[in-house]
């Protein structure tokens, strides 16, 4: 059978990315142009600044992806592009570019859900992974527990009722004056701290599959304020470690509960927070006695990238889920929404 | 040479193909539907109706702004992709000179306006000298009152073109040396865009490619404005 070559574009947040894949799971190139430095001075991603940068970068990133893959436009069988969720202005740059590429090349366009892309990063990493399995999607914008029933078929079991897990990391890091983005900074500091130093609350909200991190966030902020009021020294390493422990314990507990109750033997982690070392350790340790296998993508595939979009797009393509030229960005696109 | 013009700088989406002196097709939709939903289906339809293939296009011209930031980016991301695949030049034309070109050979001075929100307009001033469109000053963003006062203080005749005139119609009508053209002239037209671009291309002005063309935003993002103000306060020691 002839190989299927995918050209994928991702621009939902602050990375302009393009990738070429062979048969959905083999990366031929994975180019990521990050804007983290550009947004640092604002303390977070500024949509207008991000959108402008995406437009400046997009053609060079696409060309680099083709060059690295040793491919020409004429070798591409279909285009895949993120159309949501994300910042609408940012999404529209990548999507408009992708639509015009598909039209000019006269090949199909596949719009991809960014979150489904994160889940699909696991297919690239683990060549033997097949649905069904449970996935825990954790990032700056999302915290979802999802049953992956088949390629492109998802059922949401639970989600956060307030802050996303990654968002909580960012807010706590900002409150301690640690900078942006918060996740990697806290992960690093926590290695030097005692995770049992402070007992922060865990929200199991009546043991369902939903999450809540606002109570934990308030508890940490209150703790920091109280210390400041009393002029007591704050051991940032201990706060980071104790806060992180509370987050990863809740995430791990709920994911394992879902796998056990639904009868799955595999949990795949996905999203930026899936690169958190404490989460990887905790859930792997907790799953051992349960006979459940934990999978997660390598660090580069946990960040926003276009290879994961290409992989999800490939499965949409071979299952006939393609889009026409009227496709618009959907900033609050839900997992499994078609 | 077949030139495809794309304008998404205002609410209207306008596209056209001109070959030499012949307008082959033009398609303008001035509704609230987003450029993202309108632009590609319009290109697809227009070329199909005209028995043209996108491969036959030799040059692209795009309105670089000023205008709606998101609109500009949709048009430009589209133009860049077509130009990238087919290795075409892209000629950038600003939205105000494009509007001025609607008033071809008009003997009054031309003041183009585009709504910039917050009681402001993007504006440019032009005249036709010896049949050629000439820019009288740089493109700017100003309060509408300031602009009208400035024009009324000259003893010249002005025609104010662009849909923003309807937003300030009363004010304009009360100024005796400014008049408003008929509605079809006030909407951005890709055919006018193509005409300006063909002239520029012949003089090798503003000829770019998919890597070098940028929108003309005029305004910084709100976050940058606030950041600059903060840094200024800090530097002033306040
Ligand atoms: Zn992401």
TrEMBL record, chain A:
PANTHER family the UniProt entry points to: TRNA N6-ADENOSINE THREONYLCARBAMOYLTRANSFERASE, TRNA N6-ADENOSINE THREONYLCARBAMOYLTRANSFERASE, MITOCHONDRIAL
Cofactor notes: Binds 1 Fe(2+) ion per subunit.
Binding site residues for Fe cation: 114, 118, 304
Protein name: tRNA N6-adenosine threonylcarbamoyltransferase
Location in or out of the cell: Cytoplasm
Record family assignment: Belongs to the KAE1 / TsaD family.
Pfam short name (any one): TsaD
Name of the gene: tsaD
Catalytic activity as recorded in UniProt: L-threonylcarbamoyladenylate + adenosine(37) in tRNA = N(6)-L-threonylcarbamoyladenosine(37) in tRNA + AMP + H(+)
Primary localisation category: cytoplasm
Cofactor: Fe(2+)
Reported function: Required for the formation of a threonylcarbamoyl group on adenosine at position 37 (t(6)A37) in tRNAs that read codons beginning with adenine. Is involved in the transfer of the threonylcarbamoyl moiety of threonylcarbamoyl-AMP (TC-AMP) to the N6 group of A37, together with TsaE and TsaB. TsaD likely plays a direct catalytic role in this reaction.
This enzyme's EC code(s): 2.3.1.234
GO MF terms held by the record: iron ion binding; tRNA N(6)-L-threonylcarbamoyladenine synthase activity
UniProt keyword list: Acyltransferase, Cytoplasm, Iron, Metal-binding, Transferase, tRNA processing
All copies of domain Gcp-like, residue ranges: 26-310
Annotated GO CC locations: cytoplasm
Keyword Acyltransferase in annotation: yes
GO terms for biological process, alphabetical: tRNA threonylcarbamoyladenosine modification
Superkingdom of origin: Bacteria
UniProtKB/TrEMBL annotation, chain B:
Pfam families, alphabetized: TsaD
Every Gcp-like domain range: 31-226
Domain of life: Bacteria
InterPro entries for the chain: ATPase_NBD, Gcp-like_dom, T6A_TsaB
CDD domains: ASKHA_NBD_TsaB
A Gene Ontology molecular function term of the record: transferase activity
GO biological process: tRNA threonylcarbamoyladenosine modification
Gene3D superfamilies: 3.30.420.40
Record's GO cellular component terms: cytosol
Record's keyword terms, sorted: Transferase
Name the record gives this protein: tRNA (Adenosine(37)-N6)-threonylcarbamoyltransferase complex dimerization subunit type 1 TsaB
């Amino acid at each position: 059978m002839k190989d299927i070559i995918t050209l994928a574009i991702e621009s939902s947040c602050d990375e302009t990315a393009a990738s070429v894949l062979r048969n959905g799971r083999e990366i031929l190139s994975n180019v990521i142009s990050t804007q983290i430095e550009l947004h640092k001075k604002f303390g977070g991603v500024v949509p207008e600044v991000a959108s402008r940068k995406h437009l400046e970068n997009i053609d060079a990133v696409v060309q680099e992806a083709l060059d690295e893959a040793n491919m020409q436009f004429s070798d591409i069988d279909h285009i895949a592009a993120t159309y949501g969720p994300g910042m609408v202005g940012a999404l529209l740059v990548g999507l408009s570019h992708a639509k015009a590429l598909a039209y000019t090349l006269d090949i199909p366009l596949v719009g991809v859900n960014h979150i489904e892309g994160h889940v699909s990063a696991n297919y690239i990493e683990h060549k033997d992974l097949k649905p069904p399995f449970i996935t825990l999607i954790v990032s700056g914008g999302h915290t979802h527990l999802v049953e992956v029933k088949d390629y492109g078929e998802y059922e949401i079991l639970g989600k956060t009722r307030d802050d996303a897990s990654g968002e909580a990391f960012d807010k706590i890091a900002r409150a301690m004056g640690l900078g942006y983005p918060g996740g990697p900074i806290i992960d690093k500091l926590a290695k030097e701290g005692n995770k049992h130093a402070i007992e922060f609350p865990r929200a199991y909200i009546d043991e369902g599959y939903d999450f809540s991190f606002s109570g934990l966030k308030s508890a940490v902020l209150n703790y920091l304020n109280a210390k400041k009021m009393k002029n007591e020294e704050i051991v940032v390493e201990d706060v980071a470690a104790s806060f992180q422990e509370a987050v990863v314990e809740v995430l791990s507990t709920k994911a394992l509960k879902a796998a056990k109750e639904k009868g799955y033997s595999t949990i795949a982690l996905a999203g930026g927070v899936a690169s958190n070392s404490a989460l990887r350790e905790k859930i792997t340790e907790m799953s051992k006695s349960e006979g459940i296998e934990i999978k997660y993508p390598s660090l580069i595939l946990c960040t926003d990238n276009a290879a994961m979009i290409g992989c999800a797009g490939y499965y949409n393509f071979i299952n006939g889920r393609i889009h026409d030229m009227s496709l618009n960005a959907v900033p609050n696109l839900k997992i499994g929404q078609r | 040479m077949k030139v495809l013009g794309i304008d998404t700088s205002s609410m209207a989406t306008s596209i056209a193909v001109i070959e030499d002196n012949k307008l082959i097709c033009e398609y303008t939709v001035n509704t609230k539907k987003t450029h993202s939903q309108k632009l590609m289906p319009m290109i697809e339809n227009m070329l199909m109706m005209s028995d043209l293939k996108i491969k036959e296009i030799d040059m692209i011209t795009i309105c670089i702004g000023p205008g709606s930031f998101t609109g500009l980016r949709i048009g430009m991301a589209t133009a860049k992709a077509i130009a990238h695949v087919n290795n075409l030049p892209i000629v950038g034309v600003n939205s105000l000179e494009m509007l001025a070109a609607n008033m071809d050979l008009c003997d009054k001075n031309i003041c183009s306006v585009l709504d910039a929100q917050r009681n402001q307009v993007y504006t440019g001033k032009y005249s036709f000298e010896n049949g050629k469109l000439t820019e009288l000053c740089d493109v700017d963003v100003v309060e509408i009152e300031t602009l009208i006062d400035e024009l009324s203080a000259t003893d010249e005749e002005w025609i104010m073109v662009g849909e923003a005139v309807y937003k300030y119609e009363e004010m304009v009508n009360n100024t005796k040396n400014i008049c408003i053209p008929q509605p079809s002239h006030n909407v951005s037209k890709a055919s006018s865009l193509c005409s300006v671009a063909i002239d520029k291309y012949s003089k090798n002005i503003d000829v770019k490619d998919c890597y070098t063309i940028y929108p003309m935003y005029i305004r910084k993002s709100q976050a940058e404005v606030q950041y600059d103000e903060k840094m200024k306060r800090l530097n002033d020691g306040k």
